[in-house]
Amino acid sequence: MTFERGEERPTGTRLRAALPSVLTSSSRRARWRRTKALRLLSALLAAIAVWVVGSPLVPHEADAGQPVVVVTRDVAIGSTLSAQDVRLERRGSDQRPPRALDRVDGAIGRVAAGSLAEGEILTAARFQGPPQLAGLGAGRVAVSVPLVESGLLAAIRPADVVEVLAAGTGQTVASNAPVLSVERPGEGVLGQGGDGAGHVVLALTGEEASAVAAAITAQTGPAGFVLALRGA
Prior knowledge:
- By secondary structure, the protein is an alpha+beta fold.
- The protein has three domains: 19-57; 61-127, Antifreeze-like/N-acetylneuraminic acid synthase C-terminal domain (Type Iii Antifreeze Protein Isoform Hplc 12, Alpha-Beta Complex), CATH 3.90.1210; 129-232.
- Helix content is 24%, strand content 20%.
- The chain is built from five helices and seven strands.
- Strands 3-6-5-4-7 form a five-stranded antiparallel sheet. A two-stranded antiparallel sheet has the order 1-2.
- The longest helix is centred in the first third of the chain and has 27 residues, at 28-54.
- It starts with 10 loop residues before the first helix and ends with a strand.
């Protein structure tokens, strides 16, 4: 069929005219090229389908975790840990706190610096002794500070920072003092049998430790201090 110049061709004819000759030609070479292209396209689509369907089924290697020492039951502050209080578990790296213990013999016989909860991962800072002062700077010493009132103890946790005020005078004897542990009335080694308001163990500079000792000596009534909890 032929068309005169200016005469409108049917839509199908116009589309065929716009396509490359390899897609419309009926020659043997054109047919071979079309067949090869279709095979390649089919193989590519099949590969994509396998990847889309199969990728969610491919098992990902689970994080085997690292060994950590975990508390098996609640432990009161000031208690000495035994073999029945700890066990070794594997936890993912995202659950392992810095300085976490990885051997149970690193916890057995140590004294808890604070109350320990069942399932807690133990770190060196959770025990009384020099490890508590690690990272706090040279010259810091651990000092037990008796208190005259226990109202704030419920809100204080290890790693909090407090001001220490002498009872009666209100004089500041220590500033920016990190809390190492808290012993409430009747708890721990220092609180047993006592009638005070509890103690806190603080990391003080040598000068602050001397100021605390001097303030205790100057007090005429029961020795004690008031804490002021600093905000974050």
